């Protein structure tokens, strides 16, 4: 029996507004590793988008180091990690990482090759490999299909020429389907043997949720996948963050390991455990919970009433990610004090905006107060506008403004 854990869309080193999500996402990875240990998992499948496109090179290096620490026991015990690239993974970085891993331990370079356990494999292009179960009695075939991009799927100079986004999407969809058919036609692919498909793609009929994550529907690639449930014992999908299965329990999106924006606030986070025997899938997949960080938005209509109430209602919101919408009345509320009080309740607010709703106080977009000098007007404007910025950034910008004002004077 081979026990396999399916997860996807880690987006490591991502950000939400002003908040660095590194610690949140690493905790998600650690929860996945705990399930691998507790459930005696043989293979961990990560179906794309391992890294955030916002990650810096030094952050990527630290992320790889974190993997080494978290999964050392799993790999040393013979566990295997199979990963593939998604639309948010940097292609150059992932190709370099894959080449480095292959150079260190050459394996999996030929389609259908049986690869040794106890390693991490990264598929940056369509890949077909086999893994032996721990009892050394049968192989499981794994087909790893990264998100379709011209570099990954449209080979040759002529293949990467297209006249419009629609034509590019059509070519990529065709290339994805052709690559999948070619793998199944390969001499080493046994249609009667156990097989798992892992893909980072939108499959027709899936429910996207509030939105695709940093990708418009016009940029997305959609495949039919109407035969996936017959062709594979399990289909491990990534790309859509809303957990779901598509008509059949063994064709499913695991969802992400964390809630990544407000549109995902209601997502139930989990990883999917399933078992493959010599004759195929055994039993039904089981979802293992992953916890996660609460994300929500709050509108403050009257700070005088709302702030004491919010303190009582959210006594443990120090880790929550919050989008604040503030309405205040000039002359009645001190905006700086309101923002300070709210930051004490919700220290990890990731975005906030405010609107003056009373009759008092001049609008910044209206006529300037002619009793103030040019320098006073500029400083007052900047102090108000930069309240939404980090202290270090605000101080630096104000210092630059002071120098420019001095030059003007």
Automatic annotation (TrEMBL):
Residues 2-243 form the Calcineurin-like phosphoesterase domain. InterPro entries: Calcineurin-like_PHP, DNA_Repair-Maintenance_Comp, Metallo-depent_PP-like, SbcD. Keywords: DNA recombination, DNA replication, Endonuclease, Exonuclease, Hydrolase, Nuclease. The gene is sbcD. SbcCD cleaves DNA hairpin structures. These structures can inhibit DNA replication and are intermediates in certain DNA recombination reactions. The complex acts as a 3'->5' double strand exonuclease that can open hairpins. It also has a 5' single-strand endonuclease activity. Signal peptide: none annotated. GO terms for molecular function: 3'-5' exonuclease activity; endonuclease activity. Coiled coil: none annotated. Transmembrane segments: none annotated. Heterodimer of SbcC and SbcD. It comes from the Bacteria. Belongs to the SbcD family. It comes from Fimbriiglobus ruber. NCBIfam families: sbcd. GO terms for biological process: DNA recombination; DNA replication. SUPFAM superfamilies: Metallo-dependent phosphatases. This is Nuclease SbcCD subunit D. PANTHER family: COMPONENT OF ATP-DEPENDENT DSDNA EXONUCLEASE, NUCLEASE SBCCD SUBUNIT D.
């Amino acid at each position: 029996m081979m026990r396999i854990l399916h997860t996807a869309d880690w987006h490591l080193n991502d950000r939400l507004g002003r908040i660095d999500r590194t610690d949140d996402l690493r905790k998600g990875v650690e929860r996945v590793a705990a399930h691998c240990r507790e459930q005696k998992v043989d293979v961990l499948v990560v179906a794309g988008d391992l890294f955030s496109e916002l990650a810096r090179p030094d952050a990527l290096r630290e992320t790889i180091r974190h993997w080494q620490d978290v999964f050392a026991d799993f790999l040393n015990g013979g566990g295997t990690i199979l990963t593939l690239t998604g639309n948010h993974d940097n292609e150059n970085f992932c190709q370099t990482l894959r080449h480095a891993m292959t150079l260190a331990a050459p394996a999996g370079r030929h389609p259908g090759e049986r690869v040794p356990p106890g390693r991490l494999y990264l598929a940056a292009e369509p890949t077909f490999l086999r893994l032996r179960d721990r009892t050394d009695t049968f192989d499981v075939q794994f087909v790893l299909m990264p998100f379709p991009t011209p570099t990954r799927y449209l080979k040759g100079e002529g293949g990467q020429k297209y006249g419009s986004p629609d034509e590019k999407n059509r070519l990529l969809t065709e290339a994805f389907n052709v690559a999948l058919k070619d793998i199944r036609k390969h001499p080493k692919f046994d249609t009667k043997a156990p097989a798992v498909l892992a893909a980072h793609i939108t499959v027709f009929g899936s429910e996207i949720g509030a939105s695709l994550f940093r990708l418009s529907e016009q940029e997305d690639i959609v495949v039919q996948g109407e035969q996936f449930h017959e062709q594979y014992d399990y289909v491990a999908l990534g790309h859509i963050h809303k957990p779901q299965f598509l008509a059949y329990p063994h064709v499913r999106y695991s969802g992400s390991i964390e809630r990544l924006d407000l549109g995902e606030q209601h997502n139930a986070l989990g990883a999917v455990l399933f078992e493959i025997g010599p004759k195929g899938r055994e039993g039904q997949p089981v979802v293992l919970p992953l916890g996660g960080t609460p994300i929500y938005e709050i509108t403050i209509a009257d700070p005088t009433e709302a702030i004491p109430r919010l303190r009582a209602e959210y006594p443990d919101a120090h880790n929550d990610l919050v989008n604040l919408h503030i309405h205040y009345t000039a002359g009645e509320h001190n905006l700086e004090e309101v923002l300070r009080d709210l930051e004490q309740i919700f220290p990890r607010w990731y975005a906030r905006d405010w609107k003056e709703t009373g009759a008092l106080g001049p609008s910044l977009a209206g006529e300037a107060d002619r009793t103030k000098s040019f320098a006073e007007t500029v400083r007052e404007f900047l102090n108000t506008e930069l309240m939404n910025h980090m202290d270090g950034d605000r101080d630096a910008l104000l210092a630059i403004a002071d120098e420019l004002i001095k030059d003007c004077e």
